[in-house]
Amino acid sequence: MKLPCHLIFLGRLRADDRKEIYKMKLRTTLICLVLLLVLPSLVLAETDEVEKDKKDKLPKIPWQSYYEAMATGKAESKPILLHFTTSWNEGSKKMTLETYGDMKVARYLQDHFATGWVETGKHKTLAKKYQVNSLPTLWFLDSSGKTLTKVEGTLGPEKMLLVTEFINTKAYESTTYEAWKEKRLAR
C-alpha cells in the first residue's frame, strides 16, 4: 500500500496505516535476515565444490596412515615423508593444491617415497613423539624409520623437489643441505 508523503511526515497516520508500515518493515527485516543466513552458505558450498573439483583433478599421491607408510618404507626400502596436519590447516590446504598438486612433485613422491598423512588431532601421541609444534610439519625419515630432518611450514613445489631429492639420493650422508643445494643449482 502506498501512502501519501504528507501523511507520513505530518504524523497523521491512521492505526491501520501504522500496522501496514510495521508489517512492511517486518517483512523487509525477515527477508534481509534470510538472505544474510542463506547467501554465505551458498557461497561456501560453491567454494567447496570448486575446491573439490580442483582436488579431483590433482595427481594422486598415495597417502597412507602413519603405520602403513612406515611399513611401506621398510618393505620397499624407500625414505618416508610424514605430513603432520589438521583438516582446517590453511598451509596444508595450500600445499595440497600447489605443492602436492604439482605433477613433478607428485610423480617424484610416488616413485621414491612412502608417504604418510597424520592428523594431529587424532594422533596426539605421534604429534608429541615427533615434536610437532606448528602446522604443517613435514618429517623425513629413512626407510628404517630413523628421523632425518623436520620442516615446519609450507614448501612450494621447487623447494619440495630439492628437499626430496636431497633425502632420496642420501646426499645428507656426505654433505649439508645448503652445500648440496648450491652445487645442485649450479648445474
Which class of secondary structure composition applies to the elements?
A: alpha/beta
Straight-line distance between termini: 80 Å
Mean pLDDT equals 85
What Rg do the Cα atoms give? 28 Å
Number of domains: 2
Q: Give the SSE order as H and E letters.
A: HHEHEHHEHEEHH
The CATH topology of the largest domain is Glutaredoxin
User: At the first level of CATH, what is the class of the largest domain?
Assistant: Alpha Beta
Contiguous low-pLDDT stretches (5 residues minimum) are none
Number of H/I helices: 8
Number of strands: 5
- CATH superfamily annotation of the largest domain: Glutaredoxin
Secondary-structure map:
Layout: H1 5-10, H2 15-57, E1 63-64, H3 66-76, E2 80-85, H4 90-99, H5 103-112, E3 114-119, H6 124-129, E4 137-141, E5 147-152, H7 157-168, H8 177-186
Parallel strand pairs: 1-3, 2-3
Antiparallel strand pairs: 2-4, 4-5
